[in-house]
Amino acid sequence: METFNIPATPSLMKEFLRQMGGTAVIDGGLATELELQGADLNDPLWSAKCLLTSPHLIRSVHLDYLEAGADIIITASYQATIQGFEAKGFSREQSENLLKKSVDIALEARRMYYERCSESSSGGTGDGRILKNRPILVAASVGSYGAYLADGSEYSGCYGEAMTVNALKEFHRRRVQVLAEAGPDIIAFETVPNKIEAQAFAELLEEEHIKIPAWLTFNSKDGVNVVSGDSLLQCASIAESCKQVVAVGINCTPPRFIHDLILAIKKVTTKPIVIYPNSGERYDADRKEWVENTGVSDEDFVSYVNKWCEIGASLVGGCCRTTPNTIKAIYRALSDRSPAAPGQKSKTAT
């Protein structure tokens, strides 16, 4: 089995993208797939509940995305926090072990996928699965403070005046340390809704001397600002100024807004741009569910992908309500572009 040498340093993302030929595919929605496999996520822990009840389902979904062509899988820790687990009666040690478990499951899925690749010589099995030995990154998800609140406030960014940068750092500090120590390739700070949380994440990375690189992705509901109304340019500039942040972008935002958001981010960053929108469906925070038939089809979603890459996106995937079918379509769309830039050896094994 081939292995790939991608250093866990600030150069990680550029080296990874070089090996991938310039673009890479991120996985899609986790919770929707877990529910399709029988998980009950009606809980403040949301998809992180499966770390307790059914870790095999998480591993199965990771594998589904790898076999759909994802080059990056994101752990089931978006809504996993030490405070959230402790509220459920778990000890500090148990809570930290559950965070670590989210990374272990993704690493195990990657190992299993590589084993399947080594057993297949054709790059697939004839059933639509993509079995292709290539660099694969495991991204440890860190959801916003609003995700922990489980009240939809990651879609408003309104934390109240009492919430400060320092308070957010203390909320996230141990969680980030544990996830970094668990051995992922990158930390994904996701659905960042406001400037103070972006600042908190950037300061934490530097204060704690986190050795693992990170990306910061924001969400928007108007295609101009982040959801709190804070300036996207200011938020992206915070990410740009932090050396441990190796990519910046947008997640969990309707596809129709992405084009203008990429152009805005490009004004303030030289780092790779990462884009993984939701399906475009509207989230009802009061009922805690997505409103069906308010999104776009996989075909419409994927029709945007090449344009996003043409104007600057390097990493593209899906967020809430996207599926392995969405990701497979993105993989195919990107595969149709060009396998590698001139003079580069893509997917080089070491």
From TrEMBL:
One of its GO terms (biological process) is S-methylmethionine cycle. It holds the Pfam family S-methyl_trans. Keywords: Metal-binding, Methyltransferase, Transferase, Zinc. Zn(2+) binds at C252, C319, C320. Residues 12-334 form the Hcy-binding domain. GO terms for molecular function: S-adenosylmethionine-homocysteine S-methyltransferase activity; zinc ion binding. Signal peptide: none annotated. This is Hcy-binding domain-containing protein. It comes from Gossypium stocksii.
